[in-house]
Amino acid sequence: MHTVPLTLITIVGEAVLAEPLIRALHALGVSGHTLSEARGQGSRGRRTGEIPGDNVRIETIVDAALADRIFALLAETYFPNYAVVAWSTAIQVVRGEKYVPPPRG
Amino acid sequence: MSLGEILAANLLSPIVLAFALGVVTRLVRSEFQLPKDLYSALSIYLLFALGLKGGHELTHASFDAIAGPVLVTLLLGCVTPLTSFAVLRYAGNFSDADAAAIAAHYGSVSAVTFIAAQTFATSVGAVPEGFMPTLLTLLESPGIHIALAIGVLKVGAGQRSSGELLHEVLTGRTMILLVGGLLVGVLMGERGWSAVSPFFDSGFKGALTLFILEMGIVAADRLHELRRVGLFLLGFGVGMPLVHGVLGAVLGTFAGLSVGGATVLAAMAASASYIAAPPATRMTLPTANPTYSLTASLAITFPFNVVLGIPIYYQVALLLQGK
Known about the structure:
The structure holds 2 protein chains of 2 kinds.
Chain A lengths: L2 E11 L4 H11 L5 E5 L16 E8 L1 H15 L5 E11 L11
Antiparallel strand pairs in A: 1-3, 1-4, 2-3
Chain B lengths: L2 H9 L2 H14 L8 H23 L4 H29 L4 H12 L3 H13 L8 H24 L6 H9 L2 H28 L3 H18 L4 H29 L4 H12 L6 H8 L5 H31 L3
Helix pairs in contact in B: 1-14, 2-10, 3-9, 3-10, 4-5, 4-7, 4-11, 5-7, 5-14, 6-12, 6-14, 7-8, 7-9, 7-12, 10-14, 11-12, 11-14, 12-14
């Protein structure tokens, strides 16, 4: 089957971040996202789970350029003060054309 | 009854015993906890029942009786965040962000402490005025906004506008259920109330007891943080509620509230929010350490108020009203 090479961005962080983060991702141009609850512990220890409500896991499929812009946003706005972890995975996506921005002009 | 007798009776109340059971559950490392959805459902039930009952009783209150208490409640909402901030910043040497974040919790109100105070006052025969839940809704928001405004002025805003913050606090679960419940309670009249009261009135104390059991577990989860927050915050978590509680009892008495009403207003002023304030604070003052505010409000002030504070405020209200 025909697939398209793309990047899966996964962000796990404090539940309070879900709404602002998703808004920011869409403002950067992601075409969709998946939101789920997450539990765990990290270098900030229990800080992640402190505020009632579990942590959240946000996943989105993007091209490489957008992936870089998302990481830049996270590094600038969220990493300094919040418990957030983010990583990217190279993936092959069926019907992947959906996630590639149309050529400009 | 003397203060000692009241304290002893309070210790054996279902609320305090259920809280203690929750703490013990954690101390013996039991895996038990209320399912998250049940905890959430119980809080919805309690808040909506509180609103409905308050709304129903509001229809019996005259404007003259309620005007004074409304004014002193708003005054308390403005004063408590300022005193909290001043004490934390200048006596406790907390950073601007931390002092403002903790002050936002102490300026707002804990609905569960309010319910515990109402239950206590009723059980000792000092039935509070029926419009007390209306006052609760008034005290929820100003404290958070004033304290966060101080924080934003001092350290700059997080990533959100004041409009977003206002929207979040005013449309949060507590406000929707309480204010919505009050409106439904006012509009549904006597017939409506008698139709729903078997569910919302009869089951109330039982549901509260179960909810408090989980609060004991949640508070005990934070006990190990007590060492990290330091002695000053421990003292603050007990001392500040006492000051605000006495102020609440004085202002409540001045505004014409009964002993029961003044006791409940005192407990409201003394309580610290742990539902509405934490997310608002986290997003607006991201550099503040949430361990401080949550541990102080949940593991120190909440148990203090439920076990010792409320009977003390009752005694203060009795003294003030010469009874």
